[in-house]
Amino acid sequence: MTNIENAKNHVLPVELVDHYIYLGHKITLNSENQVAEVGRRIGQAWAAFGANSHVLRSKKIAQHLKTKVFNQCVLPVFVYGMETTTLTEKSAERLRVAQRAMERQMLGVSLQDHKTNEWIREKTRISDVVEEIESLNKDLKEAQVNSDTTQEYWARTKPSGDA
């Protein structure tokens, strides 16, 4: 008997779950997919922030270098796979709040210091996570339009004598 025959003769139990991770995305079996995925993205971004905290929280490293590390190591984790998502206002705000918390830690500023979001962004000069996601959405839509146009062009220029 081969492994394939063994597989055909045995029924493996399938576990019933509320959610699962597929290709790095959290999939839930209800209408809260976006909420779950945004929460997962925030958690993953905090993990990336923590992995680079020796740089991002350092008082000895210049802010422009911290910004580069954030934009290259943390921001991609925030936006991974979100180019196909249309964010709700609530989800966008959750992403912005998490990003501002990271920026405050980079600057060594607490909420009790009463610094405005504009002041924080001026100091860190970090790309806004929601704007990055919207830019990716726009780029994806443009790529789809260009792809459709290219396919239409080749469909029109196909020689009629080909079988």
List the helices and strands and how they pair.
Blueprint: H1 3-9, E1 19-22, E2 25-28, H2 33-51, H3 53-56, H4 63-79, H5 89-107, H6 117-124, H7 129-157
Helix pairs in contact: 2-4, 2-5, 5-6
Supply the key terms.
two-stranded antiparallel ribbon; 163 residues; 2 strands; 5% strand
Could you characterize the architecture of this molecule?
The protein is mainly α. The chain has one domain. The protein is built from seven helices and two strands. Strands 1-2 form a two-stranded antiparallel ribbon. Helix 2 (33-51) packs parallel to helix 5. It is extended. The protein starts with a helix and ends in a 6-residue tail after the last helix. The relative contact order is 0.10. The mean pLDDT is 82.
Please identify the structural class as seen in this structure.
Answer: mainly alpha
Percent of sequence in beta strands:
under 5%
Percent helix range: 55-70%
Low-confidence stretches: none
Count of distinct structural domains:
1
Task: Tally the beta strands.
Answer: 2
List the strand order in the largest sheet.
1-2
Q: Evaluate the radius of gyration.
A: 23 Å
Q: What is the approximate shape?
A: extended
Order of helices and strands: HEEHHHHHH
Task: Give the distance, in angstroms, between the N- and C-terminal Cα atoms.
Answer: 47 Å
Mean pLDDT metric = 82
Q: Give a short account of the largest sheet.
A: 2 strands, antiparallel
Number of helices: 7
Task: Describe this structure in a few short sentences.
The chain is built from 7 helices and 2 strands, in the order H-E-E-H-H-H-H-H-H. The protein is mainly alpha-helical.
